[in-house]
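Lay summary. Proteins are chains of building blocks that fold into shapes, and those shapes determine what they do. In this project we predict the shape from the chain. Here is one chain we studied, written as its sequence of building blocks.
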Amino acid sequence: MNSLLTIATPLAACIMCAGLIVVLHPLLARYALARPNARSSHSTPTPQGGGAAVIAAVIASVAIPASLFGAPVNSSLLAIFAATVLLALVGAYDDLRTMPVMPRLLMQAVAVGIVLATLPADLRLVPLLLVWVERSLMLIGGLWFVNLVNFMDGLDWITVAEVVPVTAALALFGLYGELSSGPTIVALALCGAMIGFAPFNKPVAKLFLGDVGSLPIGLLMGWCLIELAGQGHLIAALLLPLYYLADATLTLVRRLLKGEAVWLAHRSHFYQQATNNGFSVTQVVSEVFILNVVLGAFAAVTIWLKSPYVQGMTLALGLSTVALVLSRFSRQREPLG
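And here is the predicted shape, written in a compact code that computers can read:
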């Protein structure tokens, strides 16, 4: 990949995202206030919808340098962006009004289906499965990934602490030839855009992503991870988002076992328990960020050391590290002194 493009894409995304937020913030403050509810970690109404700037910056920062430096923007990438815009529109509607569950899931399924349709016919994650079974499972998994990013976006900076390390790792793998050019440039753009968003979401946040951002961010990251897995790096693709996967999935299973209505707002996630147990917001997101850097390093080990023994041991280490952090978050923090 062109070295100038590698620098220009995240830088352009960062600057465009920050600039769009400055322009949009008065409108968001007037028309898109997120009012505190049972799920909220904030106590005062705060504008949401900053994700619109993130997604616009990602698409523009890929398209504009592509026209200047000849980067690959093929029909598959255009379809990915179309699905991303569709989810952004669904999220924007849900931010301003509440969309019923079934239409929302249907539109999400359409977006995930578009992404899966762009995958190469020979891309296989688990060759032992029939193709239609694998693609069906990928559709369900894609729907879950899109929603779990939305579910986890309930604390200032937490999605920044997740997305920046994951996309930086994906971009690094791509620059070393372990990920194709399309997802690599998207990872670079998304990393830059989230850095541009970060100052506005710094605790105490002046702006939230909103569903307009969290849903399409989940779609873009999920696509990049599928592409990574399709390159023969399934364990790495599991390790990178492992914290979000574990926190969201364990929380969902626990609520289902308790017979709770899982579609209603709640404060049961491990990161929410952490703030209830005496962790500050900064402490929580710092631990999540560091954890994701460690998981990125583990993912790198599995890519460059192909031994099944190393793969298994590294996955076990990743699971153990995530379990340790989740355990810390769920325990009452001892006061200093």
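What the prediction tells us: The two ends are 53 Å apart (CA to CA).
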